[in-house]
Amino acid sequence: MVERRRYPRYKARILLKYKRLDEPIAKWQENPEIENISFGGLSFNAYERIPVDTPLIFEFQAFTGDFMMRIIEARAKVIDVKEDGLTYRVRVAFIELNKEAKDALSAFMKYLNPSIG
């Protein structure tokens, strides 16, 4: 089977919170369980069903190679949702990362897999 993904995925345990951008009074949802993360997006479990194409904003803490913890902010959109028992497995694609966020995410990917250095 040929891998079709543009970026490799990595399992990671990180502190994460997200908020829907399509609801004016949306509250931050904190500490969803992360399935995996890549340079292109992430997969997590949510307690609410989030429709495909819903815009979200994420903030998460990530270690980098210099043993620093950095806060990364990313805008994303939901590309897939599957019911998984009491939760929903949500996959998102990052749609907006500023240069600082891209650099921090790149350093985090290298921290997770030093061979990509």
List keywords for this structure.
Thrombin, subunit H; 7 strands; 12% helix; 7-stranded antiparallel sheet; 117 residues
Secondary-structure map with pairings?
Blueprint: E1 16-20, E2 29-30, E3 33-37, E4 41-46, E5 55-63, E6 69-84, E7 87-96, H1 99-112
Antiparallel strand pairs: 1-2, 1-5, 3-4, 4-7, 5-6, 6-7
Descriptive overview:
The protein has 117 residues and is mainly β. The chain has one domain: Thrombin, subunit H. The protein is 12% helix and 45% strand. The chain has one helix and seven strands. It has one helix spanning 99-112; strands spanning 16-20, 29-30, 33-37, 41-46, 55-63, 69-84, 87-96. It has a seven-stranded antiparallel beta sheet with strand order 2-1-5-6-7-4-3. The mean pLDDT is 86.
CATH topology name: Thrombin, subunit H
| SS-derived structural category | mainly beta
- In the CATH hierarchy, what is the architecture at level 2? Beta Barrel
Helix percent band: 10-25%
Strand content: over 45%
Please provide the ordered H/E string of secondary-structure elements: EEEEEEEH
Biggest sheet strand line-up = 2-1-5-6-7-4-3
Largest sheet: 7 strands, antiparallel
Mean pLDDT: 86
Distance between the termini: 26 Å
List low-pLDDT spans: none
How many DSSP H or I helices?
A: 1
CA-based gyration radius: 14 Å
Count of separate structural domains: 1
The CATH class designation is: Mainly Beta
* Net shape: globular
Please identify which CATH superfamily we are dealing with.
Answer: predicted glycosyltransferase like domains
Number of strands: 7
